[in-house]
Structures are given as structure tokens and as C-alpha cells.
Amino acid sequence: MKKEKIYITELIENPQVTYPMTYTVSCVLAKSEALKEALVSIHTYSFVNYCQPNNHNEIYKAIDNGSFVIYKERYAVSEFGGRLMYLEGNGWSSLNVTRDSMDMRFWLVEM
Predict the structure, then answer these.
(1) Domain regions of the chain by residue span
(2) Which residues pair with 26 in a beta bridge?
């Protein structure tokens, strides 16, 4: 599968969060406006379009609706192959389910 890079400096001029500066994703995801919006929010540290979910069902509902949720104000998260995955610079990694990962104060969903 062909991969593309999303360069943060192509989305915003002066990111407040400077690492990672690129994300490697599939060609389809490189065109995703929802993913780009989530990355801009993370790198500008502006979450005005997001709110804390009340429960994990709201997280899955947002994902099912095509949004990318934000975890710990640092990672864009989606579901692939039945697993929650978070985006790092070199691609998607599996989100390990821990007590912290189920704490709703660490999650943001788009309003």
C-alpha cells in the first residue's frame, strides 16, 4: 500500500507542538479533512471544536461518524480492523487498553 506524508508546516505556519512534524499515512487518509483538522488542533493546542466525552460510547460514535478523536491532547485516534489505533510520525500504532486509556478526561471528541 502506497503511503504519503502529511507535513504539519503545510497545514499551519507556526505550530506550537513541533513533534512530530510529519505523519506517514495511506493516500486516502492523507486527503482526509477530518484527520487534518485533528492534527491542526493537536499542533496548535486549540481544542475549541472538541469536548470531553461522557463515556466510551461517545468515542466510538465519533469514530463511526468519520471523526478522529484526540487522546491526551497529543494523538489522533481512529479504529482500524476492530482496534483503536493512534497516529505517530511513522504511522499507526495500536492503543493499549489500560486504566488510563479508559479515563474520559484524557479524551476529546469533536462537538
Answers:
(1) 3-110
(2) 3
Set of cell numbers at residue 35: 484527520
Backbone dihedral angles phi then psi of residue 99, each to the nearest 5 degrees? -60, -45
The span from the CA of 102 to the CA of 27, in Å, is: 30
Helical spans, DSSP H, in the chain:
8-11, 27-30, 33-44, 56-64
Return the C-alpha cell found at 102: 479508559
The stretches in the chain having pLDDT less than 50 are none
What is this structure's pTM? 0.93
So what's the pLDDT on residue 109? 97
Neighbours of 11 (CB within 10 A): 14
